[in-house]
Specification:
single chain; about 210 residues; mainly beta; Jelly Rolls; 8-stranded antiparallel sheet; 7-stranded antiparallel sheet; 2 helices; about 10% helix; globular
Length: about 210
């Protein structure tokens, strides 16, 4: 085959692949709600591995090993995210990520480097809760803010609210201040526009997700 014909074939293949690419749903511009009253996660989500299912009107994560379920809708820069979260495991370990790239995951079970802010309630066998800027194993006071109490109570449903205004991220639980992270270099723009549910091994659940631009 001539080089010119080869180039045309390659170009045709790339065009075909581009045409097959699934486009993201529209970005979030008004209040957006997901109550999980269906049989599966659906087309608004991108699953990077196993470990997620929808059951009894809620999203269950178990054994996902840092292969998140990404919401494919882009977040506003300043935003309020509310959700109900609970764990049926004594280990607690309820986890989401905000302002990530929408596709990253842990390929081999080693140290996971997030692309956004990681929120963990009752992590490390229910020993602490954190907000981490990308590296959940990073330096406390620099990459991480944390607290050791309260521990997650198995089966107890918690109402989370996560907000970002400018460089300040605030997390409340059941209406009470929980943690805040003041980031002098906020994660914004391309590569920092998505939300995901995440999990290691705990039996964690999520419901009534509400995302509101600020």
């Amino acid at each position: 085959m001539s080089s010119a014909r080869t180039a045309k074939v390659v170009a045709a293949i790339w065009l075909a692949l581009a045409g097959c690419k699934v486009k993201d749903p529209p970005p979030i511009e008004g209040k957006w709600i997901d109550d999980f009253e269906r049989d599966d996660a659906g087309s608004n989500y991108y699953e990077t591995g196993g470990g997620f299912r929808v059951a009894d009107g809620a999203l269950n994560a178990r054994g996902a090993h840092n292969k998140p379920l990404w919401l494919r809708k882009k977040l506003p820069r300043d935003v309020q995210i509310e959700l109900t979260a609970w764990s049926n495991s004594s280990d607690g370990d309820i986890k989401v990520e905000v302002f990530g790239d929408g596709r990253s995951y842990d390929p081999d079970g080693n140290r996971y480097m997030a692309t956004g802010y990681v929120f963990i309630m009752g992590g490390w066998h229910n020993a602490k809760s954190i907000i981490a800027r990308m590296d959940e194993h990073g330096e406390v006071g620099k990459d991480i803010v944390e607290r050791t109490q309260p521990r997650v109570e198995p089966g107890k449903r918690y109402r989370w609210k996560i907000t970002r205004r400018g460089k300040l991220i605030e997390w409340t639980v059941d209406g009470q201040p929980f943690l805040r992270f003041d980031d002098p270099q906020p994660l914004t723009g391309a590569g920092h526009e998505y939300f995901c549910f995440n999990n290691w091994e705990s039996d964690s659940w999520f419901d009534d997700l509400v995302i509101t631009p600020l």
